[in-house]
Amino acid sequence: MKIETIAIHGGNVVTDTLKPIIQPITLSTTFAHQEDSMLYTRLENPNRKSLEAVMASLEGGADAAAFASGNAAGNAVFQALPAGTHIIAPDDMYHGMKMLLQTVHAGKLDVQFIDLTDKENLRKAIKQNTGLLWIETPSNPLLKISDIKALASIAKENDLKVVCDSTFATPVYQKALKLGADVVMHSSTKYISGHSDILGGILVTKAKDDLWQNIKNVQGLAGAVPSPMDCYFLTRSIKTLPYRMKAHAFNANNIAAFLDNHPYVEKVYYPGLSSHQGFETAQFQMEGYGAMLSFLIKGNANEADHLIGKLKFFSNATSLGGVESLIERRSKVQVGDPGIPDQLIRMSVGIENCEDLIEDLDQAFKETFKP
Ligand SMILES: *Cc1c(COP(=O)(O)O)cnc(C)c1O
Predict the structure, then answer these.
(1) DSSP state string for 128-197
(2) What is the pLDDT of residues 303-355, one digit of tens each?
(3) Is any ligand 1 atom within 6 A of the Cβ of residue 170?
(4) Is 140 in the pocket of ligand 1 (CB under 6 A)?
(5) Nearest atom in ligand 1 to 319's CA
């Protein structure tokens, strides 16, 4: 099966004798005792099974585990590690995940943030107690591209487990397990949901190894699991994921080119531009460049806010991956982060008509930088 077909059929688990075409929502928290039945919804539920099945299939993995948020998925990995494990993570890591490591896991795990765009930095950082390499590519919000294959091969030489946050790429554009990662992570709040109305997270594993068994224990026993409703709607959203991604990427490619040629834009961060730091690696490891981009205007934070305020089709809000375009000045969210310039604008390109979006940007620039 090709990806569009998996997206539509990979999540069907027939549990009803009437054989409905669409998987019913099973709200029951408990199931009649019988051989092979499910026991209790924290551990297993037909809708979660559907979601996990289609995600495992899309990523080419052996199993998947769904969580109540992307951070809960990441947290399950961190909780599955022995106390005191040294973790190597990217400097440009999704800031919520970075904060999770720096607060909840402070003193329990030994975390080091480095620039993973240079694989030599990884070699230098590995210590006796290093157990995990966390990759995020493309990264949030600077769209840094890390070479999954090269990093995973160094990790394997040193017996490290590799987890890749593929939220920006989705399984449509990046297959991290095939490139050497052991586990791939998604915030399903983003493109997997696609409509900015569900919070969720997913892990997919290459093998059902000891780490995976620990992760499954965290999922079932700590219980940060999504509801059957959420699982149902995510499985439904996934049916259109491959086509949504094509539209997202088409729009983002055109908007990146528009911004790149704009006299009031200093720099565009989009892996599909040949000027981007990771363009060659992205060409190799991605099948498309996604629809997240950041840019620096030739102006200050006030002008960035003014520009954002003049837009009609881009809502000024955080998050990403929905069909509607979103935009924000990133340092409003990542307050005080020295890596984020004040005038950096992050955009989640939606699937509205591309000409409408570019016209909207054009008029907002003209309003902001009047001659
Ligand atoms: C949003 C996001 C997360 C966290 O997911 P939540 O669903 O918000 O908990 C992790 N990584 C990336 C890259 C994200 O964009």
Answers:
(1) TTEEEEEEESS-TTT-----HHHHHHHHHHTT-EEEEE-TTTHHHH--TTTTT-SEEEEETTTTTT-SS-
(2) 999 999 999 999 999 999 999 999 999 999 888 888 899 999 999 999 999 99
(3) no
(4) yes
(5) 1
